[in-house]
Amino acid sequence: MSRARARWPARSSPFDHTKPAERTVAETVAKCLGRMSIERKVGQMIQAEIANVTPADVGQFGLGSVLNGGGSSPGGYKRASVEDWLALADAHYDASVAAAEPGSAVPSLWGTDAVHGHSNVYGATVFPHNIGLGAAGDADLVAAIARATASEVSATGIDWTFAPTLAVVRDDRWGRSYEGYAEHPDVVREFAGRMIRGLQGAPGDDDFLSPGRVLATSKHFVGEGQTTGGRDQGDAACSEEVLRDVHAAGHLAAIDAGALTVMAAYNSWLGNRVHGSHYLLTEVLKGALGFGGFVVSDWNGYQHVADDHGEAIALTVKAGVDMLMVGEDWPRAYHDLLQQVRTGAVPRERIDDAVTRILRVKARAGKFRRGRPSTRAGNADIVGTGAHRELARRAVRQSLVLLKNDGLLPLPRNASVLVAGDAAHNIGKQCGGWTLTWQGTGNDNEDFPNGTSIYEGIAQVVADGGAAVLRPDGAWDDAEPDVAIVVFGEEPYAEGDGDRHHLSHSADNAEPLAILRRLKARGIPTVSVFVTGRPMWVNPELNASDAFVVAWLPGTEGAGIADVIFRGVDGNAAYDFSGRLTFSWPRDPLQTPLNVGDPGYEPLYPYGFGLRYGDAPLPAPRLDEADPARDMPTPSALPRTNTTYPR
């Protein structure tokens, strides 16, 4: 028995190969593969970015896939319409099936980062990021969000989303922490299967990958949440048992649920890049775990495997990557891979295996029989529909975690409210990274025509009998308000741009704390609403607040926060807080890694914490405000491991 099979749990395929549908898939793949030249096979293994490839290129080279990277859109226009997306999808499809070589036409796939809703598309519903869904703790909600996301992605003609991220985050300094559901594998395991089935449907069901469904991706395999120092794309120096039992938990569930694509992780494991690891990608994933779909690289991930471009491609493909996601120079990747095959550096059998896997996924997704994207896209009006926005608002309500409440919440609807903080009326900030742009920066409220800011939700609630005044800097010269709500938190970021050396919020942004302290000095009762992609050390802000709500990154439906912090029309709480921490909250800014079950585990708020309105009020102790992080480097001073847009 091989080492991998001895150490990793065997999985049985969720696809019944005795069924007529699976026999048809096998016949389609064999027939297609037999007609393809080596040039067309290599083309299937290349995924090119839409800003750098034309539909004509797709047809000429027989490219297997295209993607829109973060911030990329039809014509480079951020506010491109659903019709614009659909027209480009049709153009790429038409070119791919009008291939130059007779009988070798293979429809291309289009992949996108629909990681919290179809968040690259203007007007789409943007759901809370995964950290908020983890706090909500509702697997049925996750499945409903996946189904809604699939319908919006499908409506734009796109086949495939690079979601869900199944990282088990063990160091909150990591810039991708908000893409994780929890620090504990049990939550990730449970949500993985529900998200995969929500996007694709369940294998064997009539609606599996039917119109309105999309391919899901189990990413990133494996160990990215364990990197030393929480450094993005760093090294996971953990045992194989930890890699299997903690970091692969979600991937095992995803494979069981029928995931057809897996994205390789940027990180290394014990000093070896995952993209170049034959052991992890072939012996473990495809061998021991029985994964029958295809492995796609992360953005330019193959380039990290070796200094020489051709050698890097050869090593990556031989390790088990079937499709190369190429950020910029896809012709070079195509020609270098072809050359590596012709010289024998990459065996032709490995090419046939990779292309067989790609064709099998396309056949299962109906790409050979369903025609143009526009004929199967469904109703364009589903993008940003009211039902999806209400689902997102429900998700916001369920995700909120109450850390402190000195009897102030819930607020009366007839209150005079001062709303302060730079996140109060900033939909881009409340959505965070991976929203219209890669980093989530450069967006304003007009970029979210269907969204509501947190301030707008408050103003709606108090419109009859109360009043809300927006003062981002907290300035107030009129009669004292009944209450102040200060909304603040992290600026948007994605991936390595969000890496930190510490978790102190005020060390890098002291203005919200100054606002809170001015309000406290005037005796104005104050609610803090914290917009964040991770737990942070906020002891000074907690001390200066009468109530403290963690809103995470709620997405476009900021009004869901007012639903919970205000009373209903009958004077009682309309919605109680139900969110629970799935990330332990630090006692000091350098207390990381911090995970439930660790030796000497002493967080400020433990895993699973979250107050309710019915909880007996307890005197809140004054928390230690000593901040050793103030003299540490700011995030902008951290070295980057990848300076171009990664996946």
Could you explain the architecture of this structure?
The protein has 647 residues and is an alpha/beta fold. It has 21 helices and 17 strands. It has helices spanning 3-7, 20-35, 38-44, 55-61, 82-97, 130-136, 139-155, 185-200, 240-247, 249-256, 278-288, 309-319, 330-342, 348-364, 373-376, 386-399, 427-431, 454-461, 511-521, 539-543, 559-565; strands at 46-49, 65-68, 109-112, 160-161, 217-221, 235-236, 261-264, 268-269, 272-273, 294-296, 324-326, 401-405, 416-420, 467-470, 483-489, 526-531, 547-552. The protein has a 6-stranded mixed sheet with strand order 12-17-16-15-13-14, with helices on both faces. β2, α5 and β3 form a beta-alpha-beta unit. It is globular and about 80 Å long.
SSE topology sketch:
Blueprint: H1 3-7, H2 20-35, H3 38-44, E1 46-49, H4 55-61, E2 65-68, H5 82-97, E3 109-112, H6 130-136, H7 139-155, E4 160-161, H8 185-200, E5 217-221, E6 235-236, H9 240-247, H10 249-256, E7 261-264, E8 268-269, E9 272-273, H11 278-288, E10 294-296, H12 309-319, E11 324-326, H13 330-342, H14 348-364, H15 373-376, H16 386-399, E12 401-405, E13 416-420, H17 427-431, H18 454-461, E14 467-470, E15 483-489, H19 511-521, E16 526-531, H20 539-543, E17 547-552, H21 559-565
Parallel strand pairs: 1-2, 1-11, 2-3, 3-4, 5-7, 6-8, 7-10, 13-14, 13-15, 15-16, 16-17
Antiparallel strand pairs: 8-9, 12-17
